[in-house]
């Protein structure tokens, strides 16, 4: 099997070539839809839908997809770059209208139900805007997903739709059960292909690939290109046009990032500080013109349940989604967030796949992402289409090696940049902790039990995630050692201009707290001050005397045992010497 580097050398351009390609695309930034080879009907439909100018990925992908014969495409671009229209536009123009013989002409494979529904909506909206298309000749769409009745999906396929949007597992099941003939298929599109592989669909994808006609036109879009996906692309695509955007920036240049250093037991307090002081999430249900919204990523469903309960108890309006949540509940929670009934959406990575929230302003990583690629996927939900956005990440000592690996991956300073990496003010943290323990837990008695379940879930997550690099662990150890000489500086964005203590005072206070944390007094609380003559204090003193005598007796016994052992060894050595 060829390695990734060998494979990439075959047909993927070098970094310089990719940069030149991107520069060429920038020169065409004023290119209109007409210059991409689109029909007048398609150009008009795009104008009606409010799409004024093509995005970079659309400018580079659409002409290749409309060539005669069309060329396969491997496009790398982050979420929100416009890649959905980059394949829907040439697909609709090539398919035209419904024709005989009826059957599946285009297959779109994606990782989640939410993404499939979004593709369906975008495709149908654009298709309806095309002039001169009556109902009898309009293309028919069908969505095939897990979690729905197989009988209903058999019926959908029996109606011979032109376009099928599906997840690989359920589609392969339908193909096998119905013995579907896919030889009439013209196009196959893989959307968010790296996530398809991350979710374990590689076997199903390869089986589907074997059943497709050799003459198919293939388009594959992905944010990253892991080696397994690269090998699949080599087998499934024929001399593709490789399009790579943002080669010098794996995350949007308009994205602001901040990393908040804290202790594991203070993460929920740090989250409340971020929402209140940094982002300014409203607790009011009143309609506000510029209302802030955020998506919060957590490791497991136990984290999601705890955080949603905590935030609701604190007065925030929060929705939640995790993988095992039933479909009706998922749709209801997402609908509430999209319609601004809630301002926060707490999700796991698996549940968030395919969820597209165009107006997202903030991303919060309550739990550190398991890999740099996951970080890129998460923060790619904000700062889209040139708009500004913010990504906030809570970091503990256990997360530090992974942060250092992320620093290398992004090729930008993080741990050494005091403007993006720092702690929350100690006074604010203590106030938030007290608020949680004495206020929220009284209002919501199930919070302590949910927190314990969350901690067990975190332990399981940490055991299952892959390790950071050795160099990252070495550097992390050095950073932690430096912190023993002085606390982490306060993150500037969390340092209030008024009402907060100065940075120097905060650091001295932090150092004092750290120095007394490990202090263990020689006396118990019963023996201090005027209570020393009370019965409880006298009992503790008698117990201390007995304990001291017991320890002394044990030391004497250990010395005797050592002497006996030495005597035995000497005796045995003497025997060996005499022999």
From TrEMBL:
Residue ranges of every copy of the DEAD-box RNA helicase Q domain listed in the record: 31-59
Main location: nucleus
Keywords: ATP-binding, Helicase, Hydrolase, Nucleotide-binding, Nucleus, Ribosome biogenesis, RNA-binding
GO biological process: gene expression; ribosome biogenesis
Highest taxon in the source lineage: Eukaryota
Domain Helicase C-terminal, residue spans: 280-437
Listed Gene3D superfamilies: P-loop containing nucleotide triphosphate hydrolases (3.40.50.300)
Location of this chain's protein in the cell: Nucleus
UniProt domain Helicase ATP-binding: residue ranges: 64-243
Disordered: annotated span: 1-34
Polar residues bias locations: 1-24
Cellular component aspect of the GO annotation: cytosol; nucleus
Coiled-coil segments on the chain, per record: none
Motif Q motif: where in chain: 31-59
A Pfam family annotated for this UniProt entry: Helicase_C
InterPro entries per record: DEAD/DEAH_box_helicase_dom (IPR011545), DEAD_box_RNA_helicase (IPR050079), Helicase_ATP-bd (IPR014001), Helicase_C-like (IPR001650), P-loop_NTPase (IPR027417), RNA_helicase_DEAD_Q_motif (IPR014014)
GO MF: ATP binding; hydrolase activity; RNA binding; RNA helicase activity
Protein name (database record): ATP-dependent RNA helicase DBP10
Organism: Vanrija pseudolonga
């Amino acid at each position: 099997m060829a390695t990734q580097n060998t494979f990439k050398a075959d047909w993927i351009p070098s970094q310089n070539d990719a940069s030149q390609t991107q520069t060429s695309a920038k020169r065409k930034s004023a290119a209109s839809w007409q210059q991409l080879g689109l029909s007048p009907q398609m150009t008009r439909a795009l104008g009606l839908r409010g799409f004024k100018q093509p995005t970079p990925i659309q400018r580079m992908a659409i002409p290749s997809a409309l060539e005669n014969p069309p060329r396969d495409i491997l496009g790398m671009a982050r979420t929100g770059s416009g890649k959905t229209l980059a394949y829907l536009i040439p697909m609709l123009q090539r398919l035209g209208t419904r024709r005989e013989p009826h059957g599946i002409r285009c297959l779109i494979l994606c990782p989640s139900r939410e993404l499939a529904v979004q593709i369906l909506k975008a495709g149908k909206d654009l298709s309806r805007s095309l002039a001169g298309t009556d109902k009898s000749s309009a293309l028919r769409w069908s969505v095939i997903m897990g979690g729905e009745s197989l009988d209903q999906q058999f019926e959908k396929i029996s109606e011979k739709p032109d376009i099928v949007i599906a997840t690989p597992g359920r589609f392969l099941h339908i193909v096998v059960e119905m013995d579907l003939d896919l030889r009439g298929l013209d196009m196959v599109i893989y959307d968010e292909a790296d996530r398809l592989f991350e979710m374990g669909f590689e076997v199903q994808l390869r089986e589907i690939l074997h059943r497709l006609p050799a003459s198919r036109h293939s388009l594959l879009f992905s944010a990253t290109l892991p080696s397994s996906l690269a090998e699949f692309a080599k087998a499934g695509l024929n001399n593709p046009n490789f399009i790579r955007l943002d080669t010098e920036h794996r995350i949007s240049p308009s994205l602001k990032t901040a990393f908040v250093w804290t202790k594991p037991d203070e993460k929920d307090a740090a989250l409340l500080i971020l929402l209140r002081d940094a982002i300014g999430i409203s607790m009011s249900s009143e309609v506000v013109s510029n209302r802030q919204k955020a998506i919060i990523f957590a490791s497991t469903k136990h984290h999601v349940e705890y955080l949603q309960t905590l935030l609701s108890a604190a007065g925030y309006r929060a929705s939640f989604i995790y993988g095992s949540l039933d479909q009706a509940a998922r749709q209801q929670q997402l609908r509430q967030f999209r319609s601004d009934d809630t301002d926060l959406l707490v999700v796991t990575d698996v549940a968030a796949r395919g969820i597209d929230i165009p107006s997202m302003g903030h991303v919060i990583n309550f739990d550190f992402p398991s890999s740099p690629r996951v970080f890129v996927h998460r923060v790619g939900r904000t700062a889209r289409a040139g708009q500004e956005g913010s990504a906030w990440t809570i970091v503990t000592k256990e997360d530090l090696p992974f942060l250092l690996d992320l620093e290398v991956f992004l090729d930008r300073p993080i741990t050494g940049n005091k403007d993006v990496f720092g702690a929350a003010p100690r006074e604010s943290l203590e106030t938030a902790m007290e608020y949680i323990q004495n206020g929220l837990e009284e209002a919501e008695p199930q919070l302590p039990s949910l927190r314990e379940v969350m901690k067990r879930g975190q332990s399981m997550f940490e055991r299952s995630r892959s390790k950071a690099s050795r160099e990252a662990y070495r550097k992390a150890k050095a950073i932690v050692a430096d912190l023993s000489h002085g606390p982490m500086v306060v993150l500037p964005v969390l340092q209030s201009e008024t009402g907060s203590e100065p940075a120097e005072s905060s650091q001295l206070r932090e150092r004092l707290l750290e120095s007394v944390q490990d202090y263990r007094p020689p006396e118990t609380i019963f023996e201090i001050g005027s209570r020393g003559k009370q019965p409880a204090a006298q009992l503790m003193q008698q117990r201390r005397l007995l304990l001291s005598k017991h320890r002394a007796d044990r030391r004497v016994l250990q010395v005797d045992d050592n002497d006996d052992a030495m005597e035995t060894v000497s005796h045995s050595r003497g025997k060996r010497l005499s022999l």
